[in-house]
Amino acid sequence: MKPLFSTALAVLGLALVPTAGAAAPSPAHEPTAEARAHGITKAGDAHLGWRLTDSTAASAPVRTTQGFAPSAVVYGIDVASHQGNVNWSYWWGQGKRFAYVKATEGNYYRNPYFAQQYNGSYNVGMIRGAYHFATPNDSSGANQANYFVDRGGAWSRDGRTLPGALDIEYNPYGATCYGLSQSAMVSWIRDFVNTYRSRTGRYPVIYTNLDWWSRCTGNSTAFNQTNPLWVARYASAPGTLPGGWGFHTFWQYSDNPIDQNSFNGSQDRLVALANG
Q: Which range is the signal sequence, renumbered to this chain (predicted)?
């Protein structure tokens, strides 16, 4: 599939928006010992599923156990600054057809490899999207949604750009739930979701896992009718879904040799999600 060069150039321009006015990481962003053991050595290093461990060492999931055997799936990956400049042609050759790229964290960090990763995946033919690692103790959901949109997390109806994703999970810098009560966390997520929608016209994808969502939101069902679910579980099946979602849209099933994901549907349905 040939890239849409005009759109790619427009997106590249967006990707180069300066981060003037961004807050500097504070001492509160010092990684915990657990986070350091998982390779997070400084503020900004957090990424999707950083605390999960892949015990399967599998490059592809088993899809016929626990009753999970979808009629169609599309495979993809997600990346952050840890991957540096990504060889997108290689991953295309491995059958990956979509990618999510970390754009921002909190209101103080932007992935320095974002342009290469976001536009490189697009140029090789993938459908791509951007994600934001939330730090709800730093600023409001609205503040972080705006920070994300202004630094690569926007959306365009080109059939090749997925809605942005909110990565809401374990805190690598302190208390698991960022010091927020369950009701306050739900309010923070709602603030992010509503602001993102007002800026882009789309509801963001929510990335999380059952354990964190249950602990930190009380397993809230506030978003299962509006926001696509990206569930994290390194196993042979997605398992019990959080938040009353009836099905997952994306599933992160492994981090070996890179974060691996599947889309729960056919390629034409993935394009439909991109088109909104």
A: 1-22
